[in-house]
């Protein structure tokens, strides 16, 4: 039996672990396939406060993990195979780790960026391929870039990247864009944004010093083309990692956990959500960490309330 179990170890989960551990709540953190979250796949992080010269993503996550361990947090590796949130204590079955029980649960499983699934893509993640313009745009000053996608996120990423790049080409497999009219108009009015529409991405082409461009199929002519660029930003959306919940928690139409505004509370008392699994807008390491702090404080307040209630009931008996 644990007072609190945290599912996920990105900036949100590890921050929650630090706060709960310092409050002597002795949390258990369940690590999945990617301990440390998406930051472990990045190189240098320059926008996390406190690091003047930046810090490598894996190093930042390792430091946060060690900080949580220092205060007594416990870690367990494995997938959550099954979870029962119908009553307290909540029951969590971990692959190869048996069944665990907890008085409170913090869900910080994040959201996975969608990739194109084409040759050369995964090999060059962090070496010219990115899914976050805010995170990596700074590294491409005075370079040519590609943004793949046709929705609002792609238009926003392309517009943002023009602050650094000399040219940004939007590649979309259809002639029509899915983005709202206002976002399309804003992008089309930007002289730095070029268009390669009705083109299907085929391969990320890399050279000796990084990405050289994106090989595409021109759907109109049937010919393959190379769109030259120094970096490729994939902006085709994110998928929140909530499938294991099996509909037990209220989510929006896209699968993101719905929380009470201004808190991390879900529709189930004692269950809290933080980080990208409930954030459809910001998706930054620092905002995830902040929501992890909120979740820990919400969970601590919840647990204290139930401890007092249980103690009062015991006295009455």
TrEMBL record:
GO molecular function: thioredoxin-disulfide reductase (NADPH) activity
Reaction(s) catalysed (UniProt annotation): [thioredoxin]-dithiol + NADP(+) = [thioredoxin]-disulfide + NADPH + H(+)
InterPro entries: FAD/NAD-bd_sf, FAD/NAD-binding_dom, Ferredoxin-NADP_redctase_2, Pyr_nucl-diS_OxRdtase_2_AS, Thioredox_Rdtase
Keyword Flavoprotein applies: yes
PANTHER family xrefs: THIOREDOXIN REDUCTASE 1-RELATED-RELATED (PTHR48105)
NCBIfam families: TRX_reduct
The family this protein is said to belong to: Belongs to the class-II pyridine nucleotide-disulfide oxidoreductase family.
Protein's recorded name: Thioredoxin reductase
Lineage per the UniProt record: Bacteria, Bacillati, Bacillota, Bacilli, Bacillales
């Amino acid at each position: 039996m644990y007072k609190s179990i945290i599912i996920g170890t990105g900036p949100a989960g590890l921050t929650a672990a630090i706060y709960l551990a310092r409050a002597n709540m002795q949390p258990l953190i369940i690590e999945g396939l990617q301990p440390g979250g998406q930051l472990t796949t990045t190189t240098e992080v320059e926008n996390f406060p406190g690091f003047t010269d930046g810090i490598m993503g894996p190093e930042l996550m390792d430091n946060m993990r060690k900080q949580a361990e220092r205060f007594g947090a416990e870690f367990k590796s494995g997938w959550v195979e099954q979870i029962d949130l119908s009553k307290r204590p909540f029951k969590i079955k971990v692959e190869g780790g048996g069944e665990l029980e907890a008085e409170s649960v913090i869900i910080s499983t994040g959201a996975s960026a969608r990739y194109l699934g084409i040759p050369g893509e995964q090999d060059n993640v962090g070496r010219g391929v990115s899914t976050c313009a805010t995170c990596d745009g700074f590294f491409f000053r005075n370079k040519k870039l590609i943004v793949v996608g046709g929705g609002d996120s792609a238009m926003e990423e392309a517009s943002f990247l023009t602050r650094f790049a000399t040219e940004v080409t939007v590649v979309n497999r259809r002639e029509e864009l899915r983005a709202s009219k206002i976002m399309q108009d804003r992008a089309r009015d930007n002289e730095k944004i070029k268009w390669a529409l009705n083109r299907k991405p085929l391969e990320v082409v890399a050279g000796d010093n990084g990405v050289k461009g994106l090989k595409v199929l021109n759907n109109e002519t049937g010919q393959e083309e190379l769109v030259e660029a120094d970096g490729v930003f994939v902006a085709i959306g994110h998928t929140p990692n909530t499938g294991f919940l099996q509909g037990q928690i209220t989510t929006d139409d896209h699968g993101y956990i719905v929380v009470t505004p201004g808190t991390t509370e879900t529709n189930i008392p004692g269950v809290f959500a933080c980080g990208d699994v409930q954030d459809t807008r910001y998706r930054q390491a620092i905002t995830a960490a902040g929501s992890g702090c909120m979740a820990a404080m919400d969970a601590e307040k919840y647990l204290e309330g139930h401890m007092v209630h249980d103690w009062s009931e015991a006295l009455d008996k």
